[in-house]
Amino acid sequence: MGDDLELVETEPTGDHPISITVSRGVVYVLNASGSNCMGPAVSPTITGYRMSAQGELTPIPNSTRPVLGGALSGCTQVSFNPTGDVLVVTEKAADVISTYTVGARMA
């Protein structure tokens, strides 16, 4: 173990992943879909994965959701709350903090 890191797997997450959060074996990625979540053709999203004890990722079906602020959100970060049942996305340009409940199907 020690200080060694070993790549276990890579998964496509979408266009321009900028933030990741993990809670109890569930991983969510914030995809900017362009530089800084800004631009006319930008559709930022969050997408979920299950992570095994060995670090292998499995996409959660139907977990991808659009960021509510859309192309002008300026989304910056995704995080779980302490209990892992709510995702929080900061949207700097839209001046909002969006929350998403994580139900049993999404976790």
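(the above was protein one; protein two follows)
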Amino acid sequence: MIQSEMPAEEADAVSARPARTLPAVFYLGGLALRRQFFSRQTLICLILTGISCLIVLAWTLGRTREGKPRKELTVRTFAERIIVPVHASFLVPMFAICYAASSVATEREDRTLIYLLMAPLPRPLVYLAKYLAATLLVLVWTVGSLLVLGYLGGAPGRESAGLFWPALVLGALAYTSLFHALGAIFRRGTIVSLAYAFFLEILLGNMPGIAKRGSISF
């Protein structure tokens, strides 16, 4: 019984394939990272963060209508007025939409997705590289904006940032994963993600009972 043996050249190519795949994934991830960072999404995130900083400054340094100074700022009030409504409920979803939802959608709009998927890489690794690039950008913006808002809020703001950053990082990961999947599944993934963030999240969050646990913000 004669057994067919694999040629030496083909065996070497198969054995070298995993060694070549990993650098290709890192290269694709770095390329996606640079392309998304130098885009209009970064400008949008910068503008939204600047507006949030102005809100914090106006709230911490402002005065009441009677002209009396505000009461002493505490960690609880800063968390209830700034961290939860401004950062967790608005900034973090917007960061994820800007980078995660548009990660694949941008390739589809530019008609480069077909060429990307034709690369000699498994399709799951292509999506993984895009996902990791978007996740890194979302986490940097999430933690960076939280530190800036906490610094502007004074001692209570800095203490609030130290308390809330683990939950906000986990929330950013959840939003990034969801919006990246929506962007890959739907042709208009960015619009679908916006509808989810500003309609379904609010709807589910205000429902009684355990239904609200279906939302990420809960």
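Reviewer note on protein two: Helices lie at 8-37, 40-61, 75-109, 113-117, 123-152, 154-185, 189-205.
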